Amino acid sequence: MKVLEINNVSFSYEKEVVINNVSLEFEKSDFAAFVGPNGSGKSTLIKMITGNLKPDQGEIKIFGKSINNYSDWSRIGYISQQVRDFNQSFPATVREIIASNLYNKMGFLKIMNSKLEAKIIKALELVDMKNYLNRKIGNLSGGQQQRVFIARMMVNDPDLILLDEPLVGVDIRAQDDFYQIIGEINNNLQKTVIMVSHDVNLISKQANKVICFDNGEAYPHDSGDFSYQNYIEGLRDTSIRIIPEHGH
Ligand SMILES: Nc1ncnc2c1ncn2[C@@H]1O[C@H](COP(=O)(O)OP(=O)(O)OP(=O)(O)O)[C@@H](O)[C@H]1O
Question: What CDD domains does its record include (predicted)?
């Protein structure tokens, strides 16, 4: 069964067509990179996959079910472009940050039971941060905060992981660290990963599929067939910028 199917999907904001008749498929343990210039529709497609935007035309299926009837959202993990730099005085602990992704499992009184606590510990072990459970998130380094966010995403054991430019403003060491952890989650746990990134060279080495967005269309490549050089030369033909706009 396909993890995710996008069939002839189109979407416009007002009159601007942003996604134009796009069809793509993703299977278990795929690592797909969404690349393309600013404004080419990568985030818009991610928002449709998370159910935050509805296609004007076409169909999205998650684990074989139409997204219109889909309800098991805990099987989908998501990290967005959000800025993660918490100020030192930010009061939440690592436990609370991760627990906030378990609220729907806690029931009316929001009580943490031992089963949920065990899930939090397991997620922290995955990112090698078990000893930081009671630390304030604001006191951790940027790289450690990023690990906590991966743990927060993994606490529900999602099968499909969507990452929308999670590395904007992150230093090179933390980037390597992030790729290593996500690579392990992809390889060892067979999770499907879709990641939007402007670092086309780096991500095309990590991914097995590279999807190039341009002018509302999306062109899939196996990473073995993808040429970074051709990609860059293609962009040079136009006045398109490929530098991320959301810098810090
Ligand atoms: N809420 C909105 N209302 C109107 N237009 C929007 C909205 N969000 C995005 N757009 C426009 O849709 C187009 C696609 O945006 P989108 O964010 O999907 O691109 P992207 O490929 O993710 O770009 P980037 O790499 O800069 O993040 C852009 O022209 C953008 O200005």
Answer: ABC_Metallic_Cations
CATH code that applies to domain 82-190: 3.40.50.300
DSSP string, 170-205: --HHHHHHHHHHHHHHHHHS--EEEEE-S-HHHHHH
Does the beta carbon of 247 lie inside 6 Å of ligand 1? Answer: no
Domain boundaries of the chain, sorted by first residue: 1-71+207-237, 82-190
User: Regarding predicted confidence, which is higher, 212 or 228?
Assistant: 212
Q: Is the CB of 142 under 6 A from ligand 1?
A: no
Q: What is the architecture of the domain spanning 1-71+207-237?
A: 3-Layer(aba) Sandwich (3.40)
CA of 178 to the centre of ligand 1 (A): 25
Closest CA to 72 of 54, 51, 97, 42: 51
Residue 190: both structure tokens together: 């067979």
Euclidean distance between CA atoms 243 and 25, whole angstroms: 27
ipTM (interface predicted TM): 0.96
101-132: per-residue pLDDT in tens? 987 666 655 666 788 899 999 999 999 999 99
Q: Is 79 exposed, middle or buried (0-12, 13-18, 19+ CB in 10 A)?
A: buried
Q: Structure pTM?
A: 0.89
**Å from CA of 90 to ligand 1 middle:** 31
Write out pLDDT tens, residues 97-107.
999 898 766 66
